[in-house]
């Protein structure tokens, strides 16, 4: 039998920040044991399959845990312990040598930005119509209404909006549906841009334009936009400050940005995500995608699991850190949105507060989604 080739433990420029190891989380001992087990495990290509399996299993279980109204820290602890034990037995029993996969997916030597573009370019183009055309609009509408921001979204016909880091364009279309006169979507990934254009065309949607561009160097003149939306993008770049300065530059005076970046602390699901980056990081992305689809996961769930797990740069920010950065970028005021869509952690925190179910809520949901309405 040929000797298995080693694979790179994790690609270069792949961030591994694990907040719950240092923030006095009550499950930090279990998290550390989990982290160290995966950090120290010898890397062999045949472990890609069990790594992807453990990722799926733990992610789905963590998702269930935070969806339950009843929350026990002991469940987090035993989940991390059980998953580590399962991994140890799977790893010990795996002897399959998958040489053809190694040939098919050579180690990726490109930089973080190229890998980010490729990563997302492979995830969006398979979403179904509900998750692509409808759900983002409903979520955005809910976020606007719950935070009483409707007044801003009136008389939009003469306003121009930018979706900075638009992915497959699902929120770009939501902005169009809200009524903006012209909407532009930019993304690093050419696959996403082509896909987004084709989707607008398929439904004959007008006044939407897409470009391949970097949000750290937005190819528009100063004061071009009335509104900028940037959802889940800047935390994947190597310079969030520069991204904020760019958004500020292209906004008109008095213009507004709806910004969302990953928060810290982020609750159990984000903690699990950071731990799982150690598990899944060494698995070549095409192989991980293929396995998750083979496990029968719906495309939306494949996106959700891989979104944060295989992107090279994954950085979380405390609200106070982010607010300092907003001030430094030049913004005059901002509001941290305390409500959100059904699945937003801010909304879940709000609902728990309403029902008086506050036990361990900071560990369950962290500080809630870092979503801001920012004014130039
Ligand atoms: C998590 S996805 C979010 C996409 C979209 N905002 C949404 O919510 O559906 C992050 C997106 O940011 C894009 N991206 C990451 N870094 C970027 C950069 N420097 N410039 C432009 N787009 C970037 C990725 O290609 C990806 O499509």
Unreliable sequence segments:
1-7, 95-106
How many separate helices? 15
Identify the CATH homologous superfamily of the largest domain. Answer: Vaccinia Virus protein VP39
**Which oligomerization state do the chains in this entry correspond to?**
single chain
Q: Class by helix and strand content?
A: alpha/beta
| β-sheet strand percentage | 5-15%
* Share of helical residues: 40-55%
Sequence of strands across the biggest β-sheet? 3-2-1-4-5-7-6
- Radius of gyration computed on alpha carbons: 21 Å
- Bound heterogens, unique: S-adenosylmethionine
**End-to-end C-alpha gap:** 64 Å
| Average pLDDT reading | 90
* Count of folded domains: 2
Number of separate strands: 7
Helix and strand element order = HHHHHHEHEHEEHEHHHHEHHE
CATH topology of the largest domain: Rossmann fold
**Morphology:** globular
CATH architecture of the largest domain: 3-Layer(aba) Sandwich
Q: Can you summarize the main beta sheet?
A: 7 strands, mixed
Class of the largest domain, according to the CATH hierarchy?
Answer: Alpha Beta
Helix-strand layout with pairing:
Elements: H1 28-40, H2 48-67, H3 73-93, H4 99-104, H5 112-121, H6 129-146, E1 160-164, H7 170-178, E2 182-187, H8 190-202, E3 208-212, E4 225-231, H9 240-250, E5 251-261, H10 267-280, H11 285-294, H12 299-309, H13 319-329, E6 333-336, H14 345-355, H15 361-365, E7 370-375
This protein binds S-adenosylmethionine (SAM).
Residues 116-117, 120, 165-167, 170-171, 187-189, 192, 214-216, 231-233, 236-237, 307 line the site of S-adenosylmethionine.
């Amino acid at each position: 039998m040929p000797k298995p080739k080693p694979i790179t433990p994790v690609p270069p420029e792949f961030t591994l920040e694990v907040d719950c190891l240092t923030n006095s989380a009550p499950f930090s001992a279990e998290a550390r044991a989990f982290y160290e087990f995966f950090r120290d495990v010898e890397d062999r290509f045949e472990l890609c399959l069990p790594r992807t399996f453990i990722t799926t299993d733990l992610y789905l279980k963590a998702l269930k845990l935070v969806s339950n109204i009843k929350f026990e820290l002991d469940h987090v602890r035993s989940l991390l312990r059980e998953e580590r034990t399962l991994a140890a037995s799977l790893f010990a029993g795996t002897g399959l040598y998958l040489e053809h996969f190694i040939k098919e997916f050579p180690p990726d030597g490109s930089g973080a930005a190229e890998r980010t573009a490729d990563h997302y370019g492979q995830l969006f183009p398979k979403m179904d119509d509900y998750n692509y055309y409808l759900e983002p609009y409903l979520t955005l509408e809910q976020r606007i209404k719950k935070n009483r921001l409707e007044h801003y979204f009136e008389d939009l016909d003469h306003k121009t909006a930018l979706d900075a880091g638009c992915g497959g364009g699902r929120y770009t279309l939501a902005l169009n549906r809200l009524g903006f006169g012209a909407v532009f979507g930019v993304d690093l990934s050419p696959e996403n841009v082509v896909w987004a254009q084709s989707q607008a065309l398929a439904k004959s949607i007008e006044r939407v334009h897409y470009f391949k561009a970097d949000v750290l160097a937005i190819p528009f003149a100063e004061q071009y936009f009335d509104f900028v939306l940037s959802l889940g993008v800047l935390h994947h770049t190597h310079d969030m400050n520069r991204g904020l300065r760019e958004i500020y530059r292209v906004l008109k005076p008095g213009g507004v940005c709806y910004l969302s970046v990953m928060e810290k602390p982020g609750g159990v699901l984000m903690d699990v995500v950071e731990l799982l980056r150690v598990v899944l990081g060494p698995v070549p992305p095409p192989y991980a995608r293929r396995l998750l689809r083979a496990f029968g996961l719906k495309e939306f769930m494949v996106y959700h699991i891989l979104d944060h797990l295989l992107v090279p740069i994954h950085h979380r920010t405390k609200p106070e850190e982010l607010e300092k950065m907003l001030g430094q970028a030049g913004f005059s005021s901002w509001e941290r949105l305390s409500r959100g869509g059904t699945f937003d952690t801010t909304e879940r925190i709000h609902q728990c507060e309403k029902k008086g179910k506050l036990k361990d809520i900071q560990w369950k949901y962290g500080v809630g989604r870092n979503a801001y309405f920012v004014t130039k």
